[in-house]
Amino acid sequence: MRTCSSRLIVAGVFAIALAGCGSAGGDASVEVGITAQPLQAAAPSSGPDAQRHLAITVTEVDVHVASTGGDDATKADSAPGKDASESGWITVFSGKTRVDLFDAASTEARIAAMDVPAGKLTQVRLVLDGAELVEGTTTTAVACPSCSQWGLKIITEGKVEVTAGGTLHLALDFDQTKSLSQDESGYRMDPVIKIANSAGN
Q1: Nearest to residue 80, comparing CAs of 35, 141, 122?
Q2: Average of per-residue pLDDT across 51-80
Q3: SS in 3 state form for the chain?
Q4: 193: closest CA among 34, 22, 55, 25?
Q5: How high is the pLDDT of residue 9?
């Protein structure tokens, strides 16, 4: 599976999972949620009740966990799968769930939670099946070829650790304004995402 990461940003607070009750190399847990920054309208809304925002449909979330000492993100090139024994990739969510980024701007949308091996989390891959621009009661399709064809890859640069016996929580934050553009062919989304919070216990 190819991935696209040209406009993805990794930033924010890396509060690494420091406490754990298990032994080294044991299982841990990863939780993934989505938050968003409000979409700034380029022009006044069409009516008093219009709330301009994006909505996305998530179909897959994968994480790559490297064993201690093997945290080089360039080694995570093989396809994701549920068995991390060979590639280190784990699919923590597979299905279809719609996330309204207007709601996610105030309340995090929890997407996935799954047990994973302890180690360094080097990448998160997010696969989307469509996006929409919502303006009041009007919904417009938004093109995002890389979202579904290759997935969106967020590289953590080895700064996030999944500690044995602990739980790591990742909040993926969408910058709606920077992600959305418009040209003669219509609306396009090139997602700008940061890890707004990475906390564990």
Answers
A1: 122
A2: 74
A3: CCCECCCCCCCCEECCCCCCCCCCCCEEEEEEEEEEECCCCCCCCCCCCCCCEEEEEEEEEEEEEECCCCCCHHHCCCCCCCCHHHHCEEEEEEEEEEEEHHHHCCCCEEEEEEEEECEEEEEEEEEEEEEEEEECCEEEEEECHHHHHCCEEEEEEEEEEECCCCEEEEEEEEEHHHHEEEECCEEEECCCEEEEEEEEC
A4: 34
A5: 39
